[in-house]
Each structure stands twice: as C-alpha cells, then as structure tokens.
C-alpha cells in the first residue's frame, strides 16, 4: 500500500513541478516586460553612459525576476507539503527519506519574505 502511495506521490510531484514551471515561464514573460518598463523609470535619472544604464536596467530586471521566482517556488513547496501533511496525518514522515532538517517543509523556514530587496 505504501509503495502505491509513494508512486502516486511521485507522479503528483512531477505534475506539480511541470505546472509550476509552465506558470513561472508565463509569469516571467509578462513580468519581464513590466519590469523592463519599471527599470526605464527607475534608472531615468541615473548618471552614466547609455550602455552603463542599459546594463544596470538589465541587471536589475534579472535579479528581481530571480527573487520573485525563488519566492514563488518556496511558497509553492511550503503549501504543497502542508497539503500532504493534512492528507497523510499519521504517515507523512513515511513519504520522505530525507531528514526533516534538510527538507523545505520544515517549520523553521516558514513563509517566504514578503519584501524583495532588489525591487526597492
């Protein structure tokens, strides 16, 4: 019975990772366009040559998008594991072979930080 649960769980994990990846790709396409427009405004009064300002804009957009992605992934992992914990209350620890200190579902990590420093 546990082998069947673990097999189904691995299929669910693969599907969720696929959906998250697709959503992130669509999210990034839209957000990159928006962030590029924000970068034009943010760096409009910056001193320096045009190539330097263009590099600063591109660097800011890339860093901000990476921070947003990591925040979304961390929150998705947290809520995925919370759902598993609710579904498999007694057998939750049997689903994983790694120690709790190395997993993203431990309660020490908590929620993702709401503030993204690069966007400030």
Short structural summary:
The protein is mainly alpha-helical.
Helical amount among residues, as a percent range?
A: 55-70%
Tell me the number of helical segments per DSSP (H or I, 4 or more residues long). 2
The end-to-end distance, rounded to whole angstroms, is 50 Å
**Could you spell the SSE succession in H and E letters?**
HH
Q: Rg, please?
A: 20 Å
**Biggest beta sheet summary:** none
Shape: elongated
Mean pLDDT value: 75
Low-pLDDT stretches = none
Q: How many beta-strand runs?
A: 0
Number of domains: 1
Binned strand content: under 5%
The secondary-structure class comes to: mainly alpha
Can you describe this structure?
This protein is mostly helical and 120 residues long. It has one domain. It is built from two helices and no strands. The chain has helices spanning 2-42, 50-87. Helix 1 (2-42) runs antiparallel to helix 2 (50-87). It is elongated, with a radius of gyration of 20 Å. The model has no long low-confidence stretch (mean pLDDT 75).
């Amino acid at each position: 019975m546990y082998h069947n649960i673990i097999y189904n769980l691995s299929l669910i994990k693969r599907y969720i990772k696929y959906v998250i990846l697709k959503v992130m790709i669509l999210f990034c396409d839209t957000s990159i366009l928006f962030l590029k427009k924000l970068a034009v405004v943010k760096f409009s009064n910056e001193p320096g040559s045009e190539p330097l300002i263009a590099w600063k804009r591109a660097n800011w957009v890339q860093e901000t998008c990476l921070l947003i992605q990591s925040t979304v992934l961390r929150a998705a992992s947290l809520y995925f594991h919370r759902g598993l914990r609710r579904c498999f209350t007694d057998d939750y620890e049997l689903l994983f072979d790694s120690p709790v200190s190395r997993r993203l579902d431990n309660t020490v990590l908590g929620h993702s930080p709401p503030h993204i420093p690069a966007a400030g």
